[in-house]
Design goal:
Number of helices: 7
Number of strands: 8
Helix content: 25-40%
Largest sheet: 6 strands, parallel
Structural class: alpha/beta
Radius of gyration: 16 Å
Shape: globular
C-alpha cells in the first residue's frame, strides 16, 4: 500500500463548477488547491466562490491574471506584474495572501523556455512557490472525455508516488471532472493515499527537475 500524499489541484476557476467540486471534497473529507485566474474571479459570484474555498479550508493559488501566454511570457517583468495583479485580487477579496502559483502551460513551455529560470528565481525571491503536476486528469485536451477515463488517467498513474500532484480543471464545461472526483478519491484512498492542500511547507514540484521525494 502507498504511503503517499495526493494534492488535488484545480486550474482555471472559479467557475460554475466550483461549488460542486467543493461539495464533493466536503463529502469525501479531503482538502484541495484551486489555482485561479484573476480575470475569471472579478464577479461577485466568483469572489464568493473564492471566499468559500478559503472558508472550507482549501488553498487558493495563483494561475495568472490574464492566462494570456503571449502577454505574460513577453518578459519576466510582464509575468511578475500579471501575478501581482491576481495576488492582490485574491488577498483583497478573501483576506488570504496566496503563496502557491502554477504557470499557465506549466513551468517550462514553448513561450517561456528562455525566461522560466529567471521567472522562478524572481517569484521565489518574492515568496511565491511554483507547483507543476505529475498526475493529470487529461481533462483539457479539447476532446470530450468520460468520467471513467479521467479516473483511470489519474489512478492508473498513481502507483508508487510519494507526492502526487493531480492536474484537473475547474471550468463551466468540465462536468465530467466533477463526476469523476468521488470515485477518483475513493480509489486513491483505497490505494493508501492521504490527501492534503498545498501549504507553504509543501516542497515545490517542477518539470524538468528531479522530483523532490
Amino acid at each position: 500500500s502507498a504511503e503517499g500524499t495526493i494534492y488535488l489541484t484545480f486550474d482555471d476557476g472559479p467557475s460554475d463548477r466550483t461549488d460542486e467540486v467543493l461539495s464533493v471534497l466536503a463529502q469525501e473529507g479531503v482538502k484541495g488547491t484551486f489555482f485561479v485566474v484573476g480575470q475569471y474571479a472579478e464577479s461577485e459570484a466568483s469572489i464568493q466562490r473564492m471566499k468559500n474555498i478559503v472558508a472550507q479550508g482549501h488553498t487558493l493559488g495563483m494561475h495568472s491574471y490574464s492566462h494570456n501566454y503571449t502577454d505574460i511570457y513577453a518578459s519576466v517583468e510582464n509575468f511578475l506584474n500579471d501575478m501581482y495583479k491576481v495576488f492582490t485580487l485574491i488577498r483583497d477579496n478573501t483576506g488570504a495572501a496566496p503563496t502557491a502559483f502554477r504557470f499557465p502551460g506549466g513551468s517550462i513551455n514553448s513561450y517561456n523556455y528562455g525566461t522560466y529560470q529567471a521567472i522562478i528565481a524572481e517569484m521565489l525571491r518574492r515568496g511565491f512557490v511554483p507547483y507543476d503536476w505529475n498526475l493529470s486528469a487529461e481533462d483539457a485536451t479539447g476532446t470530450p472525455i468520460s468520467a471513467e477515463q479521467i479516473v483511470q488517467n489519474v489512478v492508473g498513474q498513481s502507483a508508487g508516488k510519494i507526492r502526487g500532484f493531480v492536474l484537473m480543471h475547474d471550468s463551466a464545461s468540465h462536468t465530467a471532472t466533477v463526476e469523476a472526483l468521488p470515485e477518483m478519491i475513493r480509489q486513491l484512498k483505497a490505494e493508501g493515499f492521504t490527501f492534503a492542500a498545498i501549504t507553504p511547507d509543501v516542497k515545490p514540484t517542477l518539470f524538468g527537475y528531479k522530483a523532490i521525494q
